[in-house]
Amino acid sequence: MKKVCVTGATGLLGTNVIIKLLQNGYSVIALVRKKSGWLGEENENLKLMEADLSSDLSLLLKDVDCIIHIAAETRQNLIRYEEYRKVNYETTVNLFTCAESAGVKKFLFVSTANTLGYGNTAFRGNEKAPQLYPFTHSLYAQSKLEAEDYLLKNCNNTDIIIVNPTFMIGAYDSKPSSGKIIFWTWKKKLVFYPKGGKNFVHVEDAANGILNAVEYGKTDEKYLLANENLSYKEFFEKVNRITNQNPIMIAIPNRALSFLGLIGDGLRKLNVKTNLSSSNMKALQICNYYSNQKSIKELSVQYQSVDKAIEDAVQYFIENKKH
């Protein structure tokens, strides 16, 4: 039985990945801040361990075959790059250094699609496309790209595989995190939506993509875990149809978003935490679209519809009284 170590085990993706690993016969060490944060069931092949990812974990990793590093700082309201770098870069470097010294064979790093160049309705961004604005100005995306570059340049004895998921929707979104986008339109009579769009993927498919990458992924390669390219209007219309709603939909002018971005830039200069920034508001105005052909061809990922992802997320929110 292969032993896998997973970080970020209590988040949306981490929970789904561990459930899939256990279903497929893996033995899992899950590194968590608090054991009480685990949302899945107990399992004899799952060991929850409270650990500081910036500490020396070499002994803990001695018999581990693969590390799946998911833990990350994803909040969009932090002001300084160092706040992202400390978690997304320095922790990754430390964990990888420990993996090398412990003789771990594979290190799978979960990054983000926003380290890669996006496309539009005519052309889809892919694994070879260089990062583009506004994500070149996203502190989060930059910290992830710095970690990617380090891993690819410094791998010696441990195989490096990088996966780049797009926007994930599905069950076990306890905070909620990305699922907040569903609440943007759910049970609303009036919905204001930006004119841009993004790529959406069922979190289960992203989890399956990670498992397949552990088995079939090539060293030093990146894999986009992506599915449907949708405008925000199209996505909200899906949510409305699935939840039997018919709100009034009003497009937000790009100029209004740009103005909000400038206000956010000013607040950040005053050390005020805010999700508003020029780069974040620009991201809502573009078609942030990607291709999944490489993951289908090389990892044999079979993607479910975004409708199913929304249904599963909504059902989870209802059952856990998150709505």
TrEMBL record:
<dbReference type="InterPro" id="IPR036291">
    <property type="entry name" value="NAD(P)-bd_dom_sf"/>
</dbReference>
<dbReference type="InterPro" id="IPR001509">
    <property type="entry name" value="Epimerase_deHydtase"/>
</dbReference>
<dbReference type="InterPro" id="IPR051783">
    <property type="entry name" value="NAD(P)-dependent_oxidoreduct"/>
</dbReference>
<feature type="domain" description="NAD-dependent epimerase/dehydratase">
    <location>
        <begin position="4"/>
        <end position="223"/>
    </location>
</feature>
<dbReference type="GO" id="GO:0004029">
    <property type="term" value="F:aldehyde dehydrogenase (NAD+) activity"/>
</dbReference>
<protein>
    <submittedName>
        <fullName>NAD-dependent epimerase/dehydratase family protein</fullName>
    </submittedName>
</protein>
<keyword id="KW-0614">Plasmid</keyword>
<dbReference type="GO" id="GO:0005737">
    <property type="term" value="C:cytoplasm"/>
</dbReference>
<dbReference type="Pfam" id="PF01370">
    <property type="entry name" value="Epimerase"/>
</dbReference>
